[in-house]
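Our platform keeps sequence and structure together, in a single record for each protein. Such a record has a labelled line for the sequence and another for the backbone structure tokens. Nothing more is needed to write down the fold, since each code stands for a local backbone conformation. For reference, a complete record is included directly beneath this paragraph:
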Amino acid sequence: MSEVAERVPMRTVLGLAVPALGVLAAEPLYVLVDTAVIGHLGAVPLAGLALGGTLFTLVSSQLTFLSYGTTARTARLHGAGRRKDAVAEGVQATWLGIAVGVLLLVLAQLFAVPIAELLAGEGPIADAAARWLRVALLGAPLVLITMAGNGWMRGVQDTRRPLWFVLAGNGTSALLCPLFVYPLGWGLEGSAVANLIGQSISAALFLRALVVERAGLRPDPATMRAQLGMGRDLVLRTLAFQACFLSATSVAARTGADSAAAHQVVWQLWSFLALVLDSLAIAAQSLVGAALGGGAAQRAKGLARQISWYGLAFGVLLGAVFAALATVLPKVFTSDAAVLAQLPSAWWFFVLQQPVAGVVFALDGVFLGAGDARYLRTATMLSAAVGYLPLIWLSLAFGWGLAGIWTGLSLFMLLRLITLLLRARSGKWAVVGAEVGAAA
């Protein structure tokens, strides 16, 4: 079959990517609403929300294998024409999410206070964070049900319904949050209760989607163990990311308040664009997994090339947009002259990284769809150990400031690009079959 015949129409890719972007963006947008509501209660509740929210995000981000790993396994079965088995993967991922979520719920009730005090010291901020976290983590099983639901539905190339499910939950939370916090007088805990209700709505919709598929709902420990095997590699990969990003924030803070503020502005923009580019990666996961599940290795390789070019073009476009906004956009975030003076030290690294990031995130999606989690784990940890972490801490030792930190991030992204391109060229990741197997 010719290469032209192997191409997937752009509208097919966008039909998967755009709703996925909505799901990815829904949670950060809700956090902004939550922050705006709590911010009017005063500094202590806002600081408590910041600390509690960071801990919640730290825990949930380690469990994204419930979505990404489930997509990889489900997409292959879907590509092989085995929809019932694909949905069964979603059932087992949901059971796994419930089990892990209940464990987190119990641990939160036992250790919320000592963990908050460890990070913030004894006092009102730690108390506020612990109170919020104890309520918020009652929803841990619900959050993980939603992750698993997103995973299996992406795998069967349905990204539209998850968008509506997530918007229904987060929209309800956004409406209830100010009501619970102010007229009802529940304060910071009111925010957590609103979040809990929203999570219940989303989780219920994902559970209903499983039930109407008429799949068997009994737990299957063997399948859950297989899902945990892929999850282990994805958790280690996520830990490498977090070690780098937390180190960068720590070093920026030690460099000075102006540097820390400038780093925060540019880092939040970088994180937002990562979500934008990750929507393309989700489309790649679904399409590549289905191609390999259907026995079409050449089609999967063609998709890898095609989506990598899309990622490059998207990254170049984003880089050009933010280069043009270099003198305007930073002033939206801060009017402090000292912070604005520090921003260019990070801004141009951020702009120039976008084409690289476009290809990196696209290939991440390709290899996640192929179930090549072991290679992604090793490549990410190696890139972090060789590129990012040494430069971050050398920046602190030698006073290189933001330029040193963002040079480290740039080197990290370049090393990831090289390792991913080498893997793509080898073709060893394109292992066909309905079951996810280890690529050579």
The two ends are 25 Å apart (CA to CA). Residues 22-219 form one domain.
